[in-house]
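Problem 3 from the worked examples.
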Amino acid sequence: MLLMLVAASAAGSQQWQGGWAETRERMHVSAVLLGVPLALAAGCWQGGRERRRGTAELLATAVRGRTAAFLASALPVALWPAAGYAVATALTWLATWYCATGDRPHLGTPLADAAVLVSAALAGHVVGRLVAWRLAAPLLAVAGYVVLGVLGYGDAGWAGGLSPYTETPSDSVPVWWQP
């Protein structure tokens, strides 16, 4: 996640490095369009790995409840993409800090994007446990990318408001719950 987001940001640094709003929008677009499919695939792969290893019988004998057992296996996979996103965001903020004019960094959008990445990894983990197919992870990533792209760029109607990817004008700050 870290390498992908840093590479995506560095590719067009002349477009976003001059202002905080442009930096926020660039990281938001990268996190949703590139990070969510990657988090979905990572979660799905880890969930499928647990199913392939046959840990269901082992977990059935454990003292923990189902939710605790699920979270013990799914949270590490869900938190690593958020950590990579946090480091990539910090690096882009450092790259913007010395040449930004006017505005300030907004913390709400990166926090909400990190929550979206964690949710995507958890959803992918559930799909990985339920679908017994090795190609589920890459196909889930492609499906996530297509769905987010259609909702973000096309005329999605009522479903467009549910998408974590909605472009905002560079002179306004999105509401805290938008991502």
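Problem 4, a separate protein:
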Amino acid sequence: MASSADPWMREYNEASKLADNITGMISERSSFGARSEARHHSSAIRRKITMLGTRLGSLQSLLKKLPAKQPITKKEMNKRRDMLANLRTNVTQTAEALNMSSFRNRDNLLGPGTKRADDMARISALEADDGR
């Protein structure tokens, strides 16, 4: 197993903690009564998901450079690839659950059954909430 001085493992552990934090925040989301509080909380979750996505990119980059920087077995390299893939899947699923456009395209966000009138009704409701 890799030592605690291993930069990739340190970064992975931090990313994993952030993912756990996001999961906890999502669990808390239903406890917010006021709409503005819920929106702020959802925004914080989205920011953290974006940060986690950046960390995953960094981990991917570090993983590509790893064999040149330190001796690592093929088995350990495959294990790390799997760990990274699992964490990336977790982030993608979380982002999909929150309808984050940076992880999905517009059609997937709206869903196949959404009609143009539904979109307009949603926009009108959002404008009404903002006092427009």
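Solution to problem 4. Residues 105-132 form one domain. The radius of gyration is 19 Å.
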